[in-house]
Amino acid sequence: MPIYKTDRTPTGTGGFDISAAALHIIAMALMLMDHLWATIFPAQEWLTCAGRLAFPIFAFMAVEGYFHTHSFQKYALRLLLFAVLSEVPFDLMYGGTWFYPVHQNVIWTLLMGLLGIRLMETVRAKGRTWRYILASAAVVVAGVVLGTLCMVDYYGAGVLTVFLFYFFRGKKWWCLLGQLLGLYWVNVELLGGLVYPIRLLGMELELCQQGLALLALIPIWLYHGRQGYHSKPFQYVCYGFYPVHMLVIVLILNVMTR
């Protein structure tokens, strides 16, 4: 999954923080839990509840990668390469077949979002605010429509999540509020899904499972720009983890069904 390299050394925050490397590891572990629930352990619903946090972290780190990478072209090409390499493992895991055209893997979602950001940033660099606003509106609509029509993972809502972290990038209070309200709207109002009835302080409430994605903001907000451990092998382990772990799950499923 997306990981970047930067020469920037952020100043200390004076408290606990989470590095980019740690965020990637957390997101990969959460994604693995979700995929294990979807395949090997469907009765363990807590796995998919934890997995709801994975995609917002990946979307956030993809946006950070855009602004920190030395070469967007190389960054996008790496994503494209691993999106292609991951498609067959993804199809085997979710569709049980080599070709499953009704659902595409999540790297396509991230790539669509990053290409949209690239277009918006190109327009913004020309210095015309009104053009940037119009271009941004057009890109957001196009991204949501294409994400839905192409049936990428999380559909248009996934692409919108990437844009959300782009528009509300930063640590100012209004950025954090925008991330919170935006993630709530995307996950609860747009995606929705399974609802758990809960009782709290004598009141009957409903908890949307997809709404647990908002908890991803806790590790995201604890990130302050520190990259942490980085090396070429680690970078490609992060990219390769996605297709490889899906292939391993498929192999385990094949053994279990014999």
TrEMBL record:
<protein>
    <submittedName>
        <fullName>Conjugal transfer protein TraX</fullName>
    </submittedName>
</protein>
<keyword id="KW-0472">Membrane</keyword>
<keyword id="KW-1133">Transmembrane helix</keyword>
<feature type="transmembrane region" description="Helical">
    <location>
        <begin position="129"/>
        <end position="146"/>
    </location>
</feature>
<feature type="transmembrane region" description="Helical">
    <location>
        <begin position="236"/>
        <end position="256"/>
    </location>
</feature>
<feature type="transmembrane region" description="Helical">
    <location>
        <begin position="207"/>
        <end position="224"/>
    </location>
</feature>
<feature type="transmembrane region" description="Helical">
    <location>
        <begin position="12"/>
        <end position="33"/>
    </location>
</feature>
<dbReference type="InterPro" id="IPR008875">
    <property type="entry name" value="TraX"/>
</dbReference>
<feature type="transmembrane region" description="Helical">
    <location>
        <begin position="98"/>
        <end position="117"/>
    </location>
</feature>
<keyword id="KW-0812">Transmembrane</keyword>
<feature type="transmembrane region" description="Helical">
    <location>
        <begin position="180"/>
        <end position="201"/>
    </location>
</feature>
<dbReference type="Pfam" id="PF05857">
    <property type="entry name" value="TraX"/>
</dbReference>
<feature type="transmembrane region" description="Helical">
    <location>
        <begin position="45"/>
        <end position="63"/>
    </location>
</feature>
